[in-house]
Structure formats: structure tokens, C-alpha cells
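quick one, 659 residues, struct below
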Amino acid sequence: MLYVIELALILSYYFSQVLSIVTAAFSILAPYEFIISCGVFAALCAMGWFFYGFFRKLLLHDWTPVIAHLGLYCTIFIGYGKLETYYAQYGEIASRLLVKTGGMSFLNESFIFAISLSVAFAIPFMKKSAALSKYLQKKYLFWLSLISLYSSFACFGDRLFFREGFQFGTLALYLLGAMWLFPIFLSILYLYEVAATKFDSLRCDAPTPIDIRKTRLILFGIFMGIWIIYLIALNPACIIPDSVHMWDEATSGEKIGYLAFPSIIIIFVRLLTNIIPHPIFVVLVQIGIVSLLMSSFLSTLFKHGVPRKFLYIFAFIWALLPQNGIIVVSLLSNTPYTASLLFLTTVILEIVSAKHIAHWTLFKLALALPLAFTTRNEGFMPTIFVIVFLAIFALCKPIKPKLIIATLAGCVLIALIQGPLYYTLTTRSSEEEPAISAAQHLAIDGIQSVVYFGGNLAPETEAYLESFAPIEYWKSTYAIYKIDLWKWPSSFDSVRAKHTNTLIEHYLKTLVREPFLLIQNRLNNADLMWDIAQPKGMYVQRLSISHDIIEEYDFQLKFPRHENILTTIAKIANSVTIAIPLTDILLYRAGAHIIFSMLFCVYLCAHKMRKYMAAFIPMFGSILALLIAMGWPDFRVVWFIFVISTFVAPYLLSCKKHG
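---
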């Protein structure tokens, strides 16, 4: 039955694609060219079907689905490549056919399908694996199906549903993608099982306290040493406009309009600049704190029996990755926020895994909660999620008084940092509040997207926009993948004073009238977080060392950059990771890591280790906040996903026996 469903989806998708190409070709190609293209296409389809039937009869039954599908799609892919070459020999017909009709996209899809289908329909083999038999139960198949549906949207959704418009063929491709991803996810779960078994086989005896301290110190030295080299390469630090504004706010004590930064960050930078007023000193302290937190986390794996040599290798590679080195030595609030989330994740794992919670763990909890809450504006949501989890967890354990006291202490610290401490160390500018709040930025961008895509606005909402600028202005200045804070008319700056709640009311009315367009707008702005591949025409700021805007702000900060041989090496390493599609996806886009984390939740449930799923609460809480509020495709904003997913993964695999 599964084969029949897949075949029906394949035929419906290809029929819709061929129909669109043929329709376009009538208006582009001469009659004889069109006849030739149809003949070649028919021959290719016949060849593919021949290979499909040939492999079915020749090979053993169990291997038939894999080889047959692979042969069919590889044949179509190679055939279209030959077709493109054939047309290229006769002038510009290839570009006219493949580009203008969408055939080039069709060819690229065939290549992706050929790779995906090399592992597709491997379920018959997986059923024979003892390691995977548990995942073939109905409840896990259900969750894997949901993950596959999400992942198919992450792979194809932006292009299929947002760019090309809905067709039956796009829906067929979306469902096909989910079916093809399903066995791939089973393969990933199989790798989790193999890795966990490997950890068990290499598990050493319980280390002594001296060994743990020694391991932590060496790990700290690895992180610190590599990132100091990055700091030398990027001297005085990786500076972008936000860095300059944050430095100015910390040193002057005045908020700068809508760019007011989180209170704890301003307090941190202001205290350090009172000691040594130089960004290198601030970044050095930041490197030390991040190195300490990460080395402490990895030393926990050593307690689980993971050999220290693997931890050293992991730390070396992880610290050496360009995107990690650049962000850690950047003067940005995203770095301490990510470190705070990792710290909170560490504390949660200590709480759920320990039979008796130590007083030191409770102290760290009281410190981790306010740090996560105050280091970024979106930190409020993961903090609330963790507090709710701790409240539920405390009710199920005899340690609830300790947890409640530590949690309340953390809440008191949040109030102190946000209130008296912040106002003691900073002063307000003459403008008490920014002209436009972040929520209003998101609201006006959503309404503007409805104008851009030709949606239906309420008459009063349309009149509201026209009171600031003509409708055509709003349509022409809309940016699909980002919220540009400088594109709106100057008269719009008075929106807070004149219409405090009006804009939000208009947004809610528009949400009722055009829910699809507003959801699309939110997903577009948060594309870097959930999407697997970068859409064509999208700009992603990866904090590239060679970015011109870094040099532009050196003079404003009054600490000029001093490039050296290390700068050149770092630039090359950074550009290489961006240029390679696979590393670009794994290192600079968070969608794949969200999928890996979801699969880890299935892995934990299958091994009766559900309590460890709490490790993902801070990460998913922050993801939810960004889905609501993210407005710029900047990798530093989603860096926490990469950090937590890569650190939690070996922890969960190494604590299998402790479940």
C-alpha cells in the first residue's frame, strides 16, 4: 500500500510539472523544438521505467524498492542533464526551456530526490534491526510522522507554499518529502543507538575529584586558548553596528531609542569599562565565562565515564569552528545569552538526574534564572517555561521546598536586576521610551506584508496606513525576509504618542482577515531558524569577518582594527564553511538542529528517559519567543540552538545507563 501511495504522489507531481513545462514551452519554443523536447522526455521516461522493471526482476525482493527507486530517479536526473547539454549545443534553447519554464528547478529536485531515495524504503531492513524495533511501535511512528511533516516543510515549504503558489503538485511533493525523510530519520535514530552503545563500550571507571578538576582545567584551556587566537585575529573584537550602540549605551548610561539593550548586559559592560575602558578587556572576560561554562558542562560527561580524549577532541573542533570563534569574541548580547541558556540547561540536567539535589545546584539555579531572563529580551519565555517545569517537578519529588526557595530567589534577583540595580548604574535619555516598540515593529511589518501580497485589509486599517504614507509606498518598501527599521516614513515615529494601542488592534483585525499571509510573514522573518536551506534572494548575516560594515564602524568605536596573518586565515576558514552547502546548513542554519533535537526526544521516550527531555526546555522556549518576535535573518540570534543541540547530544547519549 505504501508503494501505491508513493507511486500516485510521484505521478501526480511529475504530471503537474510536465504540464506546466509543456504549457510554457508552447509560447517559448518553435514547433520543431517542442516536438524534439517531448520526444526526448518520453524516451527518458520509458528508459526510467525500463530500469525500474529491470531491477525489480533482477534483484532480490528486499533490495528491490531501494535500487529501483534510485535507478528510476537517477535516470531521469541524468537524462535531464543530457537534455540540457543537447539543447546547449543548439544556441540558447536550453536556457529558454529550463529557466523560463522552471525545468532547471525540476532538474535540481530530481538530483535531491535521487540522493534521498538511496535510503528510501529501507524500512523492511530496519524491521530486522533490534535497535530500531522499538521505534516501529505505533506511538513512535506517529511522532516520527509529525517530525517528518515538519521537516518536509523545512526542506520544501518556503518554495512550495510561499513562492510558487499552491498547486496539487506542490502538495504531492510536500507529502513525498515527508515519506522520504521518514526512513532517513529512522537511520539517524539508528546512529543514536550505535553512538550510545559505543559510549557504553568505552565507558571508564568513575573518575576521582582530582581527575575531574584536571579535565575541566584542560578543557577550559582549549576553549580559552583557541578563542584568544580568534581575538587576536579580530582585534579589538568583532564589531558591528549593534556593538557600537551597546558600547555607547554602557559607557554613557543613556538608552539609544529602540536599540535599548538588556539590563544585565549594560550592567556587565559598564562595570568592566569602569575597570579597563577597552573592548578587548570586556571580550576577554566574556571568553573566560563562556569557556568556564562549556568546560564544566563537558566535564559532566567525564563523570558519566566518557573518555577524556574524546572530550578534548570535541572541544578543540567545536572551538575552532569559525562561527563559534567569531561570535564568542564579538561584543554582542547574543553571546552571554547563549551562555546563560547553556548554564540553565546544565542546572536542569543536574536537577533531573540527581537523586538528591546539592545546595550548590540550587545556588546555580537561583543565578541561572535571572541570567537567562535578563540577557536578551526573548529570555523571558524560556525562563517562564523552566519555572513552570520546576513547579511541576517539585510536586513529584520530596525536595520541593528547596526547589521552590531557589526558584523564588531567582525571581527576586530578576526584579532587582530589572529595577533598582539597573536604574542605579544607568540613566535615561530625554526620550523616556523609544518611539516605536518591538511589538509595533512586528505589527506594522505584518500589515505591510498583506499589502505587498495583495491581501484584503479592513477599510479602517487601509486608512490608518494612508494617514502616514500612500499604500503604494508601503508596498514598494516591504522586505520579505526582514523587518527594516529604517524604511518607514518619518511621520510614523509618532505612532507611540498618537496611537498607543491602535496599531496592535489593526494587526489583530488583519490576522482574522488574512491569517495565512500574517503567518507567512512571521515564518519569513524567522526563516533562518526553521528552514533548512537559504531561499534565493535572502540575505543572511553570518558575522562574516570580511563584512564591510565591520570596518565602517571601527572609527566610531575609536579602537581601530589591526589585521594580521591570523585575520587572513580566519577569513579563509569562514568563507570556506559558508561556500560549502552542507557546512552552511549545519553550521549557519538552525533548522537541521531543531530536527535532530526532536529526534532526540523520540530517542529518550523509547529508552524510558523522558525526564532528560527537560534539557530542551530553554532552547524550545526561546525558539517559540523568536517565532513571535524575530525580525532579522542574523545567525547570532539563533546561535543558541546550535550550541545547546551540539552540547546536549553527547550528554544524552552518554547517560543511557543512568536513565
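Confidence is low (pLDDT under 50) at residues 58-112, 114-121, 428-434, 546-555.
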